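Hi there,

I know you've been waiting on this one. I reran it after we fixed the sequence typo, so this is the corrected version. Both the input and the resulting structure follow.
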Amino acid sequence: MTTLLPAASAEFLSRLQQERLLAIIRGTDPDAAIAASLTLFASGIRFLEVSLVTTDALGVIEELVRLAPSDCVIGAGTVMTIDDVHRSAQAGATFMVTPAVTDAVAESTRLGLPVCAGALTPTEVVAARRAGATVVKLFPGSFGGPAYLRALRDPLPDVPFVPVGGVDAPRAAEYFAAGAIAVGIGSPLLGDAARGGDLDGLRARASTFLAVRDDVTKKAVAGA
């Protein structure tokens, strides 16, 4: 299922395929969420999603847009409604992530915003792409794991999948081997950092995920 993407979505997809890691921020402490996000950026992670369930999520997005390095890409997650899309875009989010195929997918596409749409079944995957999804968030990824992704990719080889849910570093490597273009990583990466926890531990976990990413990239270059 090949889809012709607008320029912004095509650029988003290309960069996401290079970076491979999408960090997911959720928390009840806005200052801690910002500190954790900036720690991830300093560690080398470039794609980050602030879930709208985060306390003052829009304020967090606005602050990160102001403080983050210019090559970082900041989006909004748990985007459910058309209003969510508009408020998130006004806060500075440059991509949207949904947990399912909702009206937010088509609205993001209408506004020219890349969207990572949540889907699980083949029917949902096809619906997400028809609604304009740039990439498909395989959610919850823990439902079937890498084997399920392989099964989905057999009939849908051109769909760019980003598994999300319970993805630790070893599982990330397995998903890449199964054909995922990237993985979304929440608590296995963040731990308690977005709630005011240990930032040194966050740096160490980020380094582990980045090492997995770099190993996959080296193997892909060597096999090219």
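Quick highlight: DSSP finds ten helices and eight strands in the chain.

Best,
R. S.
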